[in-house]
Amino acid sequence: MPTDADTSSDAALRRQLHGLPGVDAVGLEARAAALGTRSIKTTAKAYALDLAISMIDLTTLEGADTPGKVRALCAKGANPDPTDRSTPKVAAICVYSDMAATAKEALVANGAPEIKVASVATAFPSGRAAMAVKLADTRDAVAAGADEIDMVIDRGAFLSGRYLQVFEEIQQVKAECARPDGEEAHLKVIFENGELATYDNIRRASWLAMSAGADFIKTSTGKVTVNATPPGTLLMLEAVRDFRAATGRQVGVKPAGGIRTAKDAIKYLVMVNETVGEDWLSRDWFRFGASSLLNDLLMQRQKLSTGRYSGPDYVTVD
Fold this sequence. Notes:
Elements: H1 4-18, H2 25-35, H3 42-54, E1 56-59, H4 67-78, E2 92-96, H5 100-109, E3 116-121, H6 131-143, E4 148-152, H7 155-159, H8 163-175, E5 186-190, H9 193-196, H10 199-212, E6 216-218, H11 230-247, E7 252-254, H12 262-275, E8 288-290, H13 293-306
Helix pairs in contact: 2-11, 3-12, 3-13, 4-5, 8-10, 10-11, 11-12
């Protein structure tokens, strides 16, 4: 039974979220499209390719994942191009929670303990489970060594207007990110923008998650038809910019799903630079959730340095 305090908190949160300015969809999409046409010089492209590699959460989230596949992914993330040791390492390896310990051990074995282990949790990708199950999922991932937790919000609750429920779930998951060593796993909150349906909902979800303590806000799981899009990501970048101006706290952004080419990745980096500036142009504040993107970045990187494309066996096929 809701208490008076619950009702008051819910009403206050609803006023806050519905008091946000409405999104000009036409203007947002036009701005995203315009940013996508920007060209960069060759020297800047070399920098952008390396930066994009360093921002990748190299991901495998399949029911058929095996320890061997995860170890191979960790080896690739630690040494993306064995012929060129100057190639940056990726930011993180993203796996299911039962593979977090395997990933942690493999990264140490490959001499890359600085690469983070990101674990999806909270009944990924649907988010449909009892709260006790979601919290246990998070605890298991953190205990296994996960440095980052990628949780999914309850879209059904959000779309039904039960904002306080979603807010409190994020807070509870955040509390489970504390580790015995006194450190805290970073929390990335996934909205599944394609299911939120409107830009206004994406803006509200962004502010809700950041207010609840999210360290990153993330577009999508990569498991639905509509995943990361330039307009949705632009809107989230504007939200983190405005949130920092209002609160002084900086929050990261992670577009995930459907970003497969170096050309697309560079468009997103231009968007970051033009919208929130250099403060977000690092792996600490911007990530790409991807599996195949790394391959194209490596191909383009070699093309830039040698003037020709490599053969089809130059990079491993994920």
